Amino acid sequence: MLRSTFHHLEGISLAGEASLWRSGIRDWSELAGQLDRVGAPGSPRRERIARGLAESEAALAEHRGEFFARRLPYAEHWRIYPAFRPATAFLDIETTSLSPYEGIVTVVTVHGGGATRSFVADDNLEELPSYLRRFQLMVTFSGRVFDIPFLQFRFPQWTPPAGHFDLRFALYRVGQAGGLKRIEERLRLGSRAGVEGIQGLDAVRLWEQHRRGSASALDRLIQYNRADAVNLEPLAEWTVRELTRRSVGSAVAPPRPDRPARSEGSARVGAPSGGTAAGR
Question: pTM of the predicted model, to two decimals?
Fold first, then answer.
């Protein structure tokens, strides 16, 4: 999907990108070979896009995900994921409150890069910021309004990865509203073996039981949090497939028999466009 993306190039809007797809241009190399689609020879616009294509090829070859993250709106960060799977962190946190000003982070699980690690308050939570530096893309569920603000309050010097694929908002775009567990059940994705029925408030109670000396409560809380993080991966895979189908796939689909095809003319690209946590 990333090589089919043109919206990160200066001067190409989402509508212009779709126009290129409809004209048959599906890849950076194809656009580089047909720059007349975006401007006359020698025009500043054409030169900017040609330069952006070269920079994109270099950034992908050098595995610099932030290049794309900083040039795409948050809603389109899902496009980065397929090219940066090995550098993706699936992250979920547990807290004692819905507000970072009233509660603390108790457990954080990071799944990705061939490992799944949990970080626990009063144990190894301080290691989390340095561990996250190895990742270029973060996948969360409602992390933009919950997980990330909590972690930034807890670790003021920590800077999240530039790329952030928030599944809550991406899933809503494809008709999957609701909390994480409800969506998992609906799509039959992920596993909650051993932690069936545990909800967010139960996680708070488990932490309180742990603080009172229950080792089993902490084990159960970590297992629950790990399920939340690990299950984000199959959800991300499903969501990216669906969004790709609805974007590139729909743009190049043949017209319906009962509707005449619209002429694309020269397929010139349009002007640039302006660029509470759900139950989990």
Answer: 0.86
